[in-house]
Design brief:
5-stranded parallel beta sheet, 18 strands, 5-stranded mixed beta sheet, alpha/beta, 20 helices, about 500 residues
């Protein structure tokens, strides 16, 4: 079948500056966002931090705390790391202090809690200390205050003590007695929106977003089309219930964006496992609130190697209802959530840089190649059109927003319903248009509007050409790929999109 999808997105940049001095953008970021909110990303690659597998929001906070301008107080940073953020080489030393000195040890770390149905206890896991299974426990009051510790865990400051065994038949435990979630910033969305008006062009703001994603825009991307595809990965960060599929060769940064930039997302890596209980509701434990209810998005990385247990159809069946309406039913338990769902996978690429097969869904596991399931995904990201990540691509772009602050802003924008009203006012939709197609286009367009024009409160505040070029056309394209691929999978699905157009209001 002849390929109908155009090779590239086109952007009318006649009124947009194609080039500007990178230092000007750095200066603008420093002027608009004070120290703490902005950070010199070059400093995050210091040897003290680069050897540790820290999320970006933790690394950025440390740099903000221990730097002034371009100068990093490495001695103070080293002391803090030694005292509060140990690496695995000190795990046994800290356990010894807890056991022998009866000391209270406070650390900044990733804490997780796993319920054990046999013992009826909540087991504490501290990966950095290799504390697993029965070695750790948590005060129940902490779980009442921070339920995020369940189903994924979270970063925070925890105070640990050691409970000595009462007899030889019982085991000693490391106990989490106090816990403060790592939330050093609150997003001021009004200030963020006002800051947008200080940027001279859409192109400059796009580069600002890319810097916040820890890329170096002038040296990492060939054109605006590549940049737009990269920021489309942020759609689930700002728009509730956006469901995406991205297929790409390895090395294009999928895992980095969805796994490192925000504590509000959850990435299940290749080789991991997924169950209905994990996503939604555990019938045997009667524990509600799976990953879908606790995060802004759930991403499955390297989908070909994800394990779905002995009954993958059970997971797909539960997902179909949720992806359609945001509601789910497991046994007698019903609930709603607004997390997006993202499938990330690899796809074979030819020497010309195109997928070997025009049937993209062939790269998905067989049990996912069901039209009714895939039709519920709103958009497709052509990951093979993104550049491979190089040493100079990540974290060397100068100043950007602190990742923790940026993730709070993105999370805050999710509750903004004004962009959806603007999109509805702009679009002319045929009465006989497919509902899923229209929902997909409007939802993605609303996400792009939040990302690129967060200050817009009405149709009068954005140029119709800007809306059409940067919000509507990318959204239409992302859904068009889903539509054409569904037709190739099953000819009962129509190939053409409805004639949705932008009104010249």
């Amino acid at each position: 079948m002849e390929e109908k999808i155009p090779e590239t997105m086109t952007f009318d940049e006649t009124s947009e500056p194609r080039e500007y001095a990178p230092d000007e953008l750095d200066k603008k970021i420093r002027e608009l966002f004070p120290p703490g909110e902005s950070v010199n990303k070059r400093l995050t690659k210091t040897g003290l931090l680069s050897s540790r597998a820290l999320p970006s929001f933790v690394s950025d906070w440390l740099i903000s705390k221990f730097s002034s301008g371009n100068q990093l107080d490495t001695l103070a940073l080293q002391r803090f790391l030694d005292n509060y953020l140990p690496d695995k080489s000190r795990a046994e030393e800290i356990k010894h202090r807890l056991m022998s000195d009866r000391a209270r040890v406070t650390i900044l770390a990733d804490f997780r809690v796993t319920p054990n149905i046999q013992s009826g206890e909540e087991y504490l896991e501290i990966p950095i200390l290799d504390v697993t299974g029965k070695e750790g426990m948590v005060d129940p009051i902490i779980l009442d205050k921070s339920p995020e510790l369940l189903n994924g865990g979270m970063w925070g400051v925890g105070e640990l003590v050691y409970n000595q065994p009462e007899s030889r038949k019982k085991d000693g435990r490391i106990v989490l007695k106090e816990f403060t979630p790592f939330r050093p910033y609150q997003a001021n969305l009004d200030y963020y929106r006002k800051a947008r008006s200080r940027f001279s062009s859409t192109i400059e703001w796009i580069d600002f977003l890319l810097k916040n994603m820890e890329y170096d825009p002038p040296h990492s991307f060939e054109d605006t089309s590549q940049k737009m595809r990269m920021i489309s990965r942020l759609l689930p960060f700002v728009q509730p219930r956006v469901n995406l599929i991205e297929l790409a060769p390895k090395g294009t940064g999928k895992s980095y964006v969805f796994g490192r930039l925000s504590k509000y997302g959850w990435l299940i890596s290749g080789g991991g496992s997924v169950s209905r209980a994990q996503l939604f509701y555990d019938i045997s434990k009667k524990r509600r609130g799976g990953l879908i209810t606790r995060f802004d998005y759930v991403a499955l990385d390297e989908i070909q190697s994800i394990k779905f247990g002995s009954n993958p159809e059970e997971v797909i069946g539960a997902l179909k209802g949720y992806l359609e309406s945001g509601a789910y039913n497991v046994a007698s338990y019903s609930a709603q959530a607004d997390a997006g769902f993202i499938i990330l996978g690899n796809i074979p690429i030819s020497e010309s840089g195109r997928p070997i097969s025009n049937n993209y869904f062939d790269s998905l596991p067989n049990f996912m190649q069901e039209g009714a399931f895939l039709d519920r995904f709103h958009g497709f990201i052509e990951g093979w059109k993104l550049p491979r990540i190089k040493v100079g691509s990540i974290g060397k772009g100068g100043y950007a927003l602190n990742s923790e602050f940026f993730s709070e802003v993105m999370h805050g924008l999710r509750s903004d319903t004004t962009p959806a009203a603007v999109v509805d006012a702009y679009l002319d939709v045929p009465k006989d248009a497919d509902k899923r197609d229209v929902t997909a286009v409007t939802r993605i367009a609303s996400g792009f509007l939040k990302l690129l024009y967060p200050q817009v409160r009405s149709v009068n505040e954005i140029d119709v050409n800007d809306f059409e070029t940067y919000c509507f056309e990318p959204a239409l394209r992302m859904r068009t790929i889903i539509r054409e691929q569904l037709h190739r999978l099953d000819e009962e699905f129509p190939e053409d999109m409805p004639e949705v157009v932008v009104k010249k209001v």
